[in-house]
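FAQ

Q: What does a record look like?
A: Structure on top, sequence underneath. For example:
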């Protein structure tokens, strides 16, 4: 691995924070037990924060960002993977604490990897990415709590975001009646194409509300937090369930215990970063069985490593809709 490798590299000193497309040596890669030729990565919101420096995401420097990747094992000292295996990586602090996927090659711990499921291509895996994987974990959590299509209306907040749009699509495929909450009502037709039956303005949920409200939703998948999550809890039906997987509005939860005590609702936290391997494999196998190629092509665009930094700026300015897949070998 001595040949030069193209990678996005973030550096920081006392006076400067910068991201650039750089050439690194194979010997510079971390000392881990699986080496990977990266086929595709993605550009997520967290990657945008890291590349632009607009959020304290990166923990050490220099850093190769990229919280997702799919690739081919080129060398392995792990009993679990061998050369030519196709593998997926999501989370585990990769792209924040450990060098990530926005490069032609990566070196990773085998404990962080799972096999690419049969039935989806490497590009499709990154069209799904952490967003689809997190949405699938959320749907599985609702199922395990006994929520079925017959339970009633399911709310999805942050509907135009990656997790939200995938959650709408997956719930619809499974037969649920989905209501989407969004701040971009002009995107209502798009959300209905994904599978939402009803679209509401996020303003209905984003301001302080009563501790107990009219029972409306059987369940919800929330990526917003704060007042939105508190209002969801207050408007769940008896025995309702909400999964929380994001905090776009804030980390606070200014609500009441009343819905938990008087209506027996449940709040389930969804962590996708440190999830056990068995849960990851379950989620990806379900995704492989549910997601179709036409949908993935509709919601994604493909770029090269050379285009990553410009696209990161556009992402942070809210100018990009859908998934951005990075072809790391082109």
């Amino acid at each position: 691995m001595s040949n030069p490798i193209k990678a996005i590299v973030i550096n920081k000193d006392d006076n400067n924070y910068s991201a650039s497309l750089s050439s690194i040596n194979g010997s510079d890669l971390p000392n881990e037990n699986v080496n990977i030729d990266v086929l595709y990565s993605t550009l997520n919101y967290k990657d945008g924060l890291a590349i632009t420096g607009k959020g304290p995401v990166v923990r050490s420097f220099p850093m190769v960002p990229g919280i997702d990747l799919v690739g081919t094992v080129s060398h392995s000292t792990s009993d679990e993977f061998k050369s030519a295996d196709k593998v997926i990586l999501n989370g585990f602090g990769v792209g924040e604490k450990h060098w990530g996927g926005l490069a032609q090659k990566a070196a990773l711990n085998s404990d962080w990897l799972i096999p690419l499921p049969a039935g989806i291509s490497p590009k499709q895996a990154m069209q799904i990415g952490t967003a689809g994987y997190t949405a699938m974990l959320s749907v599985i959590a609702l199922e395990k709590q006994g929520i079925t299509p017959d339970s009633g209306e399911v709310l999805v907040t942050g509907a135009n975001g990656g997790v939200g749009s995938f959650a709408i699509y997956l719930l619809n495929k499974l037969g649920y009646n989905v209501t989407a909450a969004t701040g971009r009502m002009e995107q209502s037709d798009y959300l209905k194409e994904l599978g939402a039956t009803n679209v509401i303005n996020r303003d209905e949920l984003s301001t302080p509300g009563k501790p107990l409200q009219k029972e409306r939703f059987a369940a919800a998948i929330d990526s917003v937090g704060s007042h939105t999550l508190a209002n969801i809890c207050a408007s769940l039906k008896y025995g309702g369930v909400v999964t929380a997987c994001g905090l776009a509005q804030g980390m606070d939860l200014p609500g009441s215990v009343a819905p938990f005590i008087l209506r027996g609702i449940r709040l389930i936290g969804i962590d996708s970063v440190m999830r056990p391997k068995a849960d990851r494999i379950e989620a990806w196998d379900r995704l492989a069985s549910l997601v179709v190629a036409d949908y993935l092509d509709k919601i994604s665009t493909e770029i090269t490593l050379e285009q990553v930094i410009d696209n990161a700026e556009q992402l942070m300015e809210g100018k990009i809709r859908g998934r951005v897949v990075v072809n790391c070998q082109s």
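Q: Is there anything notable about this one?
A: DSSP finds nine helices and 15 strands in the chain.
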